[in-house]
Write a structure and sequence with these properties.
By secondary structure, the chain is an alpha/beta fold. It has a single domain (42-278, 304-363), classed as Glycosidases (TIM Barrel, Alpha-Beta Barrel), CATH 3.20.20.80. It is built from 13 helices and 11 strands. It has helices at 2-31, 35-38, 51-55, 57-66, 78-81, 91-102, 133-150, 177-182, 185-197, 213-228, 249-260, 295-314, 357-363; strands at residues 45-49, 69-72, 106-114, 157-162, 202-207, 235-238, 241-243, 265-274, 283-284, 319-324, 339-340. The strands form 2 sheets. It has an 8-stranded parallel barrel with strand order 1-2-3-4-5-6-8-10, surrounded by 5 helices. Strands 9-11 form a two-stranded parallel sheet. α10 (213-228) links the parallel β5 (202-207) and β6. α7 (133-150) runs parallel beside α9, α10 (213-228) runs parallel beside α11 and α12 packs parallel to α13. The longest helix is centred in the N-terminal third of the chain and has 30 residues, at 2-31. It starts with a helix and ends with a helix. Residues 1-30 have low confidence and may be disordered.
Length: 365
């Protein structure tokens, strides 16, 4: 009986010791080294933020402890920052840039031209009809040079054109309103306008599903055209909205090497690791479909994060930045998207802002 009690006491002590160790690790993470410190000799580690996240005491502390670069999640997109032709709304973007400046953080600008979140007025003339190519390019120039000019010297890199390549593998460029009016010239001109406004800023083309071979080839085709035309593009942004299921190590390496062969720098611009397969079309949660973050998913996510960061470190001479898209699982853009009623858990910090298993895999090297 005494031996049984002693054995039980030993088990309790062991479990208690493990919990204490895990708590100590979490405390150490919050008070000691952050992601930016582990990767100091590799590349900046960034995060997408909103003005609200900067006002949240816990999130603000986590940002300052873990990251050394910020990307405005929505505040600099055309719709929010330029809602009317003769009116700009600077408050949110200014707040993020000011916070970064006060705390010694780099800033990536996101984004200057996109087929989504473009205000309706941009494409409509005084007669209520679609504007001409000349007018649209003039409006694009005014917008880009006003925004880039305002933050000249404060923003080191810009996502100039976002997602211009079509999702349909049988097509090349997305048939957006930009393309319908201007053809592909709007892409070329956007980079020229941005470079004129800030010659020192590094200019990026940014897209998703860049690791899928067929889309990678079409993105490469666009990038090569820009490089051959001597357009002032400095890099390509891999959005990296990935999952437990993709990309493979082979696909990721092939993508980095393919784009780097053009002399472009590569940045991971919007990193998250969904625990669900890729979907784009919105739908409701199916009956009986699980939305639980299980220990198995936790481990698989950690394994995938470990793999991609091993690749990032291997290509540190090409990769000049890695940015996570949101701070912790407490709130992410993947919550309710594309599946309504489903929580996603795609980041390195849980809903209580504590490091997950994936965090330790990313920092243990």
């Amino acid at each position: 009986m005494f031996k049984k009690i002693k054995k039980q006491a030993l088990i309790v002590a062991t479990v208690s010791g493990l919990l204490t160790s895990l708590q100590a690790d979490a405390q150490s993470s919050s008070q000691g080294k952050g992601l930016k410190d582990y990767y100091q000799s590799y590349f900046p580690i960034g995060v997408a933020v909103s003005p609200a996240s900067l006002k949240d005491t816990a999130l603000r502390a986590l940002i300052l402890q873990q990251f050394n670069s910020l990307t405005p999640e929505n505040a600099m997109k055309m719709g929010p920052i330029h809602p009317q032709e003769n009116r700009y709304y600077w408050d949110n973007a200014d707040a993020i840039v000011a916070f970064a400046g006060a705390n010694g953080l780099k800033v990536r600008g996101h984004n200057l031209c996109w087929h989504e979140q473009t205000p309706a007025w941009m494409f409509i003339g005084e007669d209520g009809k679609r504007v001409s190519k000349e007018i649209l390019l003039k409006r694009l120039k005014d917008h880009i040079q006003t925004v880039v000019g305002r933050y000249k010297g404060k923003i080191y890199a810009w996502d100039v054109v976002n997602e211009a390549v079509d999702d349909d593998s049988t097509k090349f460029l997305r048939n957006s309103t930009w393309y319908k009016i201007c053809g592909e010239d709007y892409i070329y001109e956007a980079f020229k306008y941005a470079h004129e406004a800030d010659p020192n800023a590094v200019l990026f083309y940014n897209d998703y599903n860049t690791e899928r071979p067929e889309k990678r080839e079409r993105i490469y085709r666009l990038l090569k055209k820009l490089v051959d035309a001597k357009i002032p593009i400095g890099g390509v942004g891999l959005q990296a909205h990935w999952s437990l299921y993709e990309p493979s190590q082979k696909e990721l390496i092939a993508t980095i090497e393919k784009f780097a062969s053009l002399g472009l720098k590569v940045q991971i611009t919007e990193l998250d690791m969904s625990v669900y397969p890729w979907e784009k079309q919105s739908r409701a949660l199916h009956a009986g479909e699980s939305a639980e973050f299980t220990p198995l998913l936790d481990q698989k996510q950690a394994d995938q994060y470990r793999m991609v960061f091993e690749v990032f470190r291997k290509y540190k001479d090409v990769i000049t930045g890695v940015t996570f898209w949101n701070i912790s699982d407490k709130h992410t853009w993947l919550d309710e998207y594309p599946v309504r009623g489903r929580k996603n858990y795609p980041l390195l910090f849980d809903q209580q802002n504590h490091p997950k298993k994936a965090y330790w895999e990313v920092t243990r090297f």
